[in-house]
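Technical appendix A lists one of the benchmark inputs used to test multi-chain prediction within the project. The record comprises two sequence entries:
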Amino acid sequence: MALAAIQPPNELFLRNSDTTVRVLAIALFTLGSTLPFVYALTRLEYVTSWTVWQAFTEFGNVYGGMDALRFTLLEAIASSILTIIIGLPVAWCLSRYQWKRIRMLRALIAVPFVTPSIVAAMGFLSLIRQDGILTKIGIDLRLETGIVGWFAEVSGWNHPGHFLALIIAHAWFNLSLMIRFVEPTLSSLDPAWEEQLSVLPQGQSRIARMKYLWIPVIGPAVLCAAALSFLFSFTSFALVKWLTPTSFTLESLMAESGSAAGIVGYRIDSSELIYSVALVQFFILLLTLWMTSVLQKRYSQRLSLLSEPGVRTHHGPPSITAKIIIMLGVAFTLLPFLSVVISSFQVRQITEGSVERNWTLDGWSNAWSGDMSTMAVGEAMSNSIIYAICTLLIALPLGWILASTIFKLEQTGWSKFSKILDLFCMLPLAVSALMVGLGVLLGGLRWYPEMFGWFLLPVYPHVLLTVPFVVRIMLPAYQSLDPAFSEQCRMLNLSSTRSWYHGTFMFLRGPAVVAGSLTLAFSLGEFGASWLLVRSGSWDTLSIVVDQLMSRPNFDPLIHTTAMAAATMLMLLTFTLFVLAERFRAHDDRSGF
Amino acid sequence: MNSIRKAGIITLLLLTFSLSGCLTDEVIEAIESDDPCMAGVQVRESDGTLKILTYDIAGFSDELIAQFVNQTGTEVEFIKTDDAGGILDQMMLTKAAPQADLMIGLDNTYLPTAIQNCLLMSHNVSDESFTQSSLEFYQGPLAVPFDEGDVCLNYDEDALAADNMSVPTSLWNLTEPEWNGKMTFPSPMTSSPGRAFLAATVDYFGHSPGNQSGDMASWWTAIVQNGAIFTSGWSESYVTYYTGGYGEYMEGHIGGAYLTVSYCHSPGVEAYYAENYTHSTSLVLPRASFHQVEYTGIINGAAEVDAANQFIEFITSMEVNVNMPDYNSMYSVLDGTDLPETNGYRYHADQAIVSNAITQEMIEQNMESWLTTWQNAVQMG
């Protein structure tokens, strides 16, 4: 009250409304992210008559559950290891030398992470086809001849080709994680450390330098990237669906039974499966997130760091080997994209049993015109854009307010609350896209069945899935804000709004653009939740159209070409947004992907 | 203090709002278990658009739909699922709040469940011009056939010749060592052709000579033991593993399986799109095929009943239905129609030797137990 007495009324109003907005944002996010799951779990509990504990313990008896768990763990671990094997040399070379177009190189390698997963799946499918680029250079992952056949024979592994294609695709997808975590540390590490160590007895050999310098310095960052890579590979859906169609991960197993779950007296086995698998998956993902957060804390322990240009100048221009490694990295990044584009202009023709690929524009014209069973690309694109914009309009401010609230709590000594809120904001990542979709589907069914008629229904899971990324980008930006600017604004007697604009907003603009573009890209490419929810309506997105086309019997060769044209459209749309966002990104900003 | 109170009130309001719409389990059960065929059914709110629930049917053209819109003045919107099973799941899931007026695509292995659960309502379309085979399974007021075809085993002629293998004369031949690891089957739990073939095996092993060496369950167990590959859908079997189909030209192909479940006329479809070339053919064994009929019907709780009836008439009209071999790679259900002769479509399409022993009542009463038997048999293998 005393404070109110000495403050001007409009200032007090602003403070009050500020708190109201924060509490509202927290309430909205809390309700939005928990209620569907609480409702869905209650629904599954009612339909199956299982308790949560029973659902856990029955996992071993659920049809296909153990096989799926084994496969998921195997592919996720293998993908993480491969991400390190491919990503570390690229990150190493990128961070140690003076590259001429470093931002462009970074952007090129970051592109896979924002690429819609269905486009990545189509890209890798095209790469491994009979006359695809990989087969031509002797890596036949499809029919497993040559070196892959030899590997299958030696290892006794039946059909390793598609599994290898899957983990390579995951490594491609997660490549930028390695760059994102390793490059900042390496590119600003004081070169004196390396030089000093090399004259000490412990630093004479390469292995010793590895043991005493590199592993302690970049180890946590590598593990952090590997843990996130594990997380994304564990919940990968579109790539698994298309690259290893005969093996199930927990995610694809749930997708298979999702449409029949939660219905009283009907296909109870489906409800039991979803209930049990969802809980096990949630537990594993929660554990992974906790591990990532522990690793991230270790990673953030500051070492002796110098300015990046100084370190790069010290190391000088890249060596030939570094150039080759980066060129291979970029080629690896671009190959699937090129492959999709080429496939969208080719149609197979069978003549007397031999296949030829003829050049055609029919796939594109089919994609634009659509037919009764597949929406035209233009219409699907407008749906995708509407969902992406709606997601942006909700997720960006919501995530921004949440990040600023976490920061404010940290600053005002409420560190416990800030940690709880921070962890809570990450919770949607512990439930995969498909689980979010299922939660909305089953929770919504219980609460308000008419919800299935809502055109904007897919925006709901998209918001839940993108808010954690907005928070993760905006929070470090807040933490690196210099309070001196805000103080100067106040000293200049600027109004609260103008103080905020000049002292805060201007410095957060860059990260906000990055968060916004990431939100748009993720929403455009979102597949799991949309795959479940658009079945309740006719609001197909571009990702769904590609999947629908590929799922149809492809007797007619043009269907495949049409699917590739739709995938190319989605790819171009995402890249356009990404390139636009890159133009707004501050020169030294690396707060996102 | 003031702001915290305000925020608290808003949070409380939000919580109250979100929980107020919550239906109790008893209410849900009442909605779902009451007889919705009678009065209490929820009717979808009319918005002047005919909403059609279907699977990814391979293409009625936009022009065709435009023709219907011009004729009737009713807009059409499609809601798509994966397959026939997806249609049934969707109808069950939204039973308390129907989202569509018409379904297109439930086949005769799913239709009895839909009827049993009162998911369909009467139509007023005459079935005078339909083929006898399309009406044998169901000829009532709740569903109208719109296409048909026989589900049967397909095999790769070239692969069998290359490996010196003989064409099976009994399903038991497939349990012999020469077929080890060379067959693929879509799971009846998740695939409608898989379900249809399961029904065929019930018929086959329920009669002689099929049952002379054991029953349906022991055959499926023996098939698993003989290295059969099971997939979730028809596509995974036909495209990924089957060596005789178009899958060999597709990216995800693995191959290795010389035999799979498809339609008896699938080789005809192969030839149609490959300039009269195919090395796939059907295995026509008595009672080892299932006559699949796909239906359209008005969803209980439909808002646009008149438009739904008009659409049924439209797709079962000669002008449209005669094109089913092209639109959906299936036979038309109208008398006097056949597959086109272009590119050997009709020539390569085999005629199945089917029996009518599997009736609507049998499926209604036994499908769940057949699926359980199958699941146990496969797990034993």
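The longest strand of chain A covers residues 346-351. Strands of chain A lie at 346-351, 354-359. Comparable benchmark entries are summarised in Table A2.
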